TrEMBL record, chain A:
Belongs to the flagella basal body rod proteins family. Residues 7-36 form the Flagellar basal body rod protein N-terminal domain. The basal body constitutes a major portion of the flagellar organelle and consists of four rings (L,P,S, and M) mounted on a central rod. The rod consists of about 26 subunits of FlgG in the distal portion, and FlgB, FlgC and FlgF are thought to build up the proximal portion of the rod with about 6 subunits each. It comes from Fictibacillus halophilus. Keywords: Bacterial flagellum, Cell projection, Cilium, Flagellum. Residues 102-145 form the Flagellar basal-body/hook protein C-terminal domain. Pfam families: Flg_bb_rod, Flg_bbr_C. Transmembrane segments: none annotated. It is found in: Bacterial flagellum basal body. Signal peptide: none annotated. This is Flagellar basal-body rod protein FlgC. Its main location: other.
From TrEMBL, chain B:
The lineage of its organism: Bacteria, Bacillati, Bacillota, Bacilli, Bacillales. The basal body constitutes a major portion of the flagellar organelle and consists of a number of rings mounted on a central rod. This is Flagellar basal body rod protein FlgB. It holds the Pfam family Flg_bb_rod. The keyword Oxidoreductase does not apply. It comes from Fictibacillus halophilus.
Amino acid sequence: MGVFDAMNVSASGLTAQRLRMDVASSNMANVDSTRGEFKNGVWEPYRRKMVVLGAGESSFKNMFNKAVNNGKMSGVKVNGVVNDQTPFKTVYQPEHPDANEEGFVQLPNVDPLKEMVDLMSATRSYEANVTALNAAKGMYLKALEIGR
Amino acid sequence: MDLFSSSVMKNLEMALDGSALKQKTISNNLANVDTPGYKAKETVFNQELKKSLQAHRTDQRHFSFGTESSSSFHVKEKTNTVMNHNGNNVDVDKEMAELAKNQLYYQTLVQRINGKFNSIKMVVKGGR
């Protein structure tokens, strides 16, 4: 076990939560973006994005450690950012430049409430990781005092 | 007499290692607090068990029981706690409490090691 393992693990948690926060912010910012992606000659609204988290990374070192110590502890890993496939919101707004012939506009499938909840959850998890990081730091500093 | 390899020093060393591993386990649980399907882990000490397994050695070449410092703690998965809707069973409040406890425990150990060193220093200086 390395000296800074606990800190690296906490750092991976911090990075993952920061990404969750970024993605939630991006979703919030694009709550009204009707031109998210250009597909087959037509503009599609922005699709809500979600972060998929997985435990640990699958490097050789970790697999080996898992086999030897039956404990896989290498922090958290972002497996990817996926699109939310729920249908877009449709609003009647004939004056909108992206309205169809009937006057309906497709708006992103972003729910600000959901994003706020996600944001709060990410913030709390981030704080927990910061606390763990500070605890590890305090312990290592204390260990340096051995033999003083 | 061996100055640094007394059982006290050895035990403290072992406990420090265990505490550091515990810190890593807690960090890992907190990092994976939002990972679907993740099962919380905990570091358990089985020093008492080891002690009770002490056996009488009939031959010097036999392996000794009990005081093996490397295997007195291990990591195991927590399976008895309530699951979240996504299969994750990390309890943040519990982990934070364990974190605080472990921090104090570690600092106490360091203090004790320092006490030990100070005694040795005292002897080396001849009580001056």
